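The instructor's notes for this session suggest beginning with a concrete chain rather than abstract definitions. Hand out the sequence below and ask the class to guess, before any prediction is shown, which regions might be ordered.
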Amino acid sequence: MSIRVVIDMNLSPQWVDALARHGWSSTHWSTIGNPGAADEEIMAWARSNDHVVFTHDLDFGTVLALTHAAGPSVIQVRGQNVLPDHMAEILVAALKQHEPDLASGALIVVEETKCRVRILPI
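After discussion, reveal the predicted structure:
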């Protein structure tokens, strides 16, 4: 697996271990950047460091749509319970299925019962 993931502040750092158990390299933003950083700063870091942004925040998709950016790829997890013990299997299945899209530029919205993919730019 080639994609690397930066996990947004609004998701638990537990996601790092959950993704690692399935072979995915990830870093929680709190370990590399200012916890109060604006979404644009996280996106700029992800683009510069070849990472996919993993978030529970709708703003990242909005930024991609408004700027017509070709990257970075963003995975948005949606639902009431977005903790790894509830959503890890669903997220890993989406990562496996859509890795080529994420590598080339995509916005992927993962929910408990469905997954939507938008190829970038939007």
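Then share the key points. The CA atoms of residues 45 and 51 lie 8 Å apart. The two ends are 25 Å apart (CA to CA).
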